[in-house]
Amino acid sequence: MTMLEPPVGGWIASIDSAPGVPVMRWASRARTIAGIEKELARIWAQPDLATDVSGDGRAARHIAARTSVLNLVVVARRPELGEHSASIISRLTGRHPSRTLILSPVDPDGPAWLDGQIQAHCVLPRADAPEVCAEIIYLTAGGEAGRHLQAIVAPLLVHDLPVTVWWPGEPPFGTPMADEIVGMADRLLVDGSMWSGDGLARLRSMAALFQDPSLAVTDFALTRQSRWREAIASTFDMPDLLPYVNSLRAVEVTYASHDDTGVAGTSNVVKPLYHVAWLASRLGMTVERPLTAGASGWAGQLLEAALRSGRREVGVTLKPVTSSAPSGTTLRVDLLAERRGSELRVSVTAEAETVQVRAWLDGVTMLERDFRAPRRTEEDLLAEALELTGRDPVGTNAIRLAALLAG
Amino acid sequence: MAVKTPTPASARDAPQTALDLRLARDGKRRRSRKPDHNPLRDGLRLERVPDPHVFVLFGATGDLTRRKVLPALYQLWRTNLLPHEYRVVAIGRRDYDDASFRAEARTALETFSRVPLETEPVRTFLDRVDYHQGDFDDDGMFERLATRLDGLDQTHGTRGNRLYYLATQSSAFPLVIGQLGRVGLDHEVHGGGWRRVVIEKPFGRDRDSAIRLNREVGKVFREKQVYRIDHYLGKETVRNLLVFRFGNGIFEPLWNRRYVDHVQITVAESIGVEGRGAFYEETGASRDFLQNHLLQLLALVAMEPPATMDADALRDEKVKVMRAVADMTPAEIDRDVIRGQYGPGWVSGEQVPGYRSEPAVHAASETETYVAAKFAIDDWRWSGVPFYLRMGKRLPKRATEIAIQFRPVPHRLFREAAVDPEPNLLAIRVQPDEGILLRFGSKVPGLGLDIRTVNMDFTYGSAFSVDSPDAYETLILDALLGDASLFTRADEAEAAWGIVTPILEAWAGRPAPPFPDYAAGTWGPPAADQLMETDGRRWRRI
User: Fold this and answer.
1) Inter-chain contact A242–B49, Cβ cutoff 8 Å?
2) Which residues of B, range 428-457, sit inside 8 Å of A by Cβ?
3) Cα–Cα distances in Å, from A167 out to A122, A172, A219, B286, B531?
4) Measured distance CA(A132)–CA(A147) in Å, rounded
5) Contact across the interface for A243 and B35, Cβ inside 8 Å
6) Which of A57-66, A384-393, B158-167, B204-213 shows the lowest per-residue confidence on average (mean pLDDT)?
7) First to last CA, chain B
8) pLDDT digit string, tens, across residues B254-313
C-alpha cells in the first residue's frame, strides 16, 4: 500500500439509461478512510456532469443530484450476504438512501487492512428530470480493523442524516461490536425468522435494545404478517363481533416444522409468536406465564403460555405440524372468544397467495373472506422500512410483548 | 372485578364515579359497554384494504375512464390495495360484451398505465370487469343493473357494497342519480353494505345550477354518501401542503398578515384546448379551473388549522375561508379580474393556432382561456393580504405553483450593499418537479458586503421514492375506504361558485376586451401584468 494513491476509476460513460432503470455511473477504489472520503468528494466535484441521455449525440445535460434521505449501514458477516444485500439495494436506487455502507469483517486473526469500493448508482426519475444518484461503499475490513467497525463507519456517514442499520443473518446482540454499531443507529432492520434455533434468546436480547428510547426496530418477520393482521382485524370490524374482541379465551398458532424428533427449540418460532404478541399488545393483555414446552404433538412439542386480560386468563399454544412450507411459517391462527354464553371462533389460514379468514358465532358462519397476500420480497420490505421514520408503537409493543412471552 | 390497567382500549371501561368503584369492587356490575372501535385497527391504516365491493362505472367508454379511472384501478389492484371480492361493472351505451370490453380496457391500460403491465395482474384484473350496455334514460337498463348487482353479491361475495363512479358528461349526472334512486340502488341497508357515489367536476356551471344539482343529488343520496372529486386535491404536493403547514412548527407562526406580503397561485398549461373546443366554449378558464382547482388551493393555503384530520373538520375550515373571500362589486371585478384569450404563436418550438381557429370554436368567440384575479380574504389572519390567482392555456410551460411572498425586512441594515436584500419567498411547486423552495439572502463571498438571493430547494424526486401515486389512485382508494377529507362537500362547491358567479355575471353584461389579447407561448395578456404593477408587484417568473 502506497501513501499516495493515484485515483482509480471515475465516471463511467453513460450507457443509454431508460427512466426508472438504475445504472452504475461511478466506480473507484481506495484503501484508507481518508482515501474513501477523497473519492466521495470527487464524485460530486464535477459541476458539469453531463450524460447523453438523448442517445442521439446531442448534448442533453442532466445534472446529477445526490439524494439526501439517510445512511444505510449493512453488516454482512458472510460475503454472500453482502452481495445479496447489495443487489437488492442497487435495485432500489431512486427510492433509497443517499449513502450505503456494506461492511464485511473478514479474517479476524490476520493483519489489519481495509478495502473500499466506491460506487454511484444513478437513475432518471423521468426523461425530463435530473438524474438522481446514491452512493454504495463496500468496505471489507480484515483483522483487528474488522472488530472496530464503528471506527470505520462513523467518519463515512453523511452528517445530520438518520442512520439505519440492516443486519441480515444473526446479529450478535450484547457483544461490544454489535452494541457499538447499533448504538449509532436510529433504526435497526432484522429478520427474526432467519435466526437459528427457536430464535427466542436473540429476540429477548433484541427487546433489551428498546432501553434506548430513540432506537426503532423493524423486524421483517413482523412486517411480513401484515395481511394476517388485516384479516384478523377485519373480523372485529363487524359490529356484531366487535364486543368479542375483549373476551378472548384462547389463541393457537399452528406453524410448519421439519423436525419430527419432538424436541422443542429446533424450529424458529419468532413468526408464530409475533401473531400472539401483536394481538396481546393491542388488547392490553399482560403475560401471566411465559412459553414452556407442553404436551408432545405428533410433529413436535407444543409450546404453551398464558396471558391475562382483565380477570380472564387467555391460553396460548404454538403448535408445530410437519409441512412442506419453510420451517417456522405460520399455517393457521385460531382464536376463541366467549361472551355471555356465546362462543366466537375465528380461523385464519394461508393458502398460496391468499389469507382466508372465517368466523363462526355459536357454529353459525358469520364471515368468510379472502385477502390477497403475495409473498413480499426483501426488496419490498427494505423499501418500505427505509421510508419509515420514528418508532412504530404497534411494532415496538408487539416485539416487547413477544420477548416477555419468550421468558 | 379487578381494576384493569388503564390501557387505551380499556380506559373507557375504567370506573368513573364512586358508585362505579363500589359496584366494580362488589363485582355486581359486569362490563357491558361495547367497545366503539376496533383496537386491532390501530396502526393498520396503511395496510387497510377496502371492504368487498362492486365498482359501478358510468361512462365506460369515455376518455376519463380510459385515461384515468381504469389505470388507477389497475394500479390499486396490482399493489393489492383492492379486496379479493371486487368487481367492476362498466356501463356504456356502445355495443360491447364482456369480452370485447375487456379487450378495449386492456388497450386503455397499455396506452395509459403509468407502470409497465404485468401479465398475471392484468389478467386477474380484467377477469373482474363486466360490461353492462344501455342508455341512461332506459328504465329497464337500471332494473337489469340492480338485478345484476344483486347477483354479483351472491356469486362473488361483494356484500352489497357499491361505489357508483360517474365518469360521464356532467349533464347526465341528475339523470343517472335519479335512476339509481328510482330502482333503489341508493339504499344502505343495515348490515347490507354501503352505497357511495363519486361525482366528477364540473359541479354545475354557476351558483344556482350547483345548488340545483346538489338538490337533485340530495334527493337520492345523503351527503355522507357523496364524493365530489377534484383531482387536484389528490396530488401529492397538495396533500403535502397540509403536512407542510400543520406538521412543521416553524412556518405556521409566519403564516399571516404580519409576515406575508401577498400570495400568488399559478396554474400554467402549455397545451391548448386539445380538441375539446366545444366543451371549452361552454366552460372557459373560470369554470374549468378557477372555481375548483384554484380556489381549492387558495382554501388550503389560507384556512385555519382544523381541530382534527377528519373529513368534516377539514372541510368546515375550507368553507369558512371561502366564505371570507370578499364580495366584489362590478367595478372591482373590472379592475381586479382579468380575462384573456390566446392568439396564434409558438409554444415549445412549435407553431400553434389561436383559440378562435381551434376546431369547434366560434370564429368570434369571447370565451376566456386565461383568467387572473386578485382576491381579498376578510378575516383576522389575512386582512390586507392580496391573493393573486392566475390560470392560462398556451402559456410558455406547464407549471403549477403556490408562492408565499414575505414582507421585506423592517430596517435596512446593509447600507453599503449594492442592492437591498430581496424579501423571502416560499414556493410550493405542485407540478412538474414537485417540491418546495425557500429563497433567502446570502452574502456573496469576497471582501465587500454584497447580498445575493439563493434558493434552498427540496424536490420530491431526490428525497423520496420517485413513485408518487396518481391523484386518481389516492382519491379512489379514499372513497372506497370512506374517507371524504379530500372530496368537495356540497356547501364547499356552492361557496366556490359564490365567488365565481358574480364575475361570470359581470362579464356576461358587457363585451369582452379585444380578443385575442395574448400570443400563444407568452405569459398572458398585458392587463394581467398591469394588475400587479398597479400594486407595485409583479408575477413570479416560473
Assistant:
1) no
2) 432-433
3) 25, 10, 10, 57, 61
4) 34
5) yes
6) A57-66
7) 69
8) 999 999 999 999 999 999 988 888 889 988 999 999 999 999 999 999 999 999 888 899
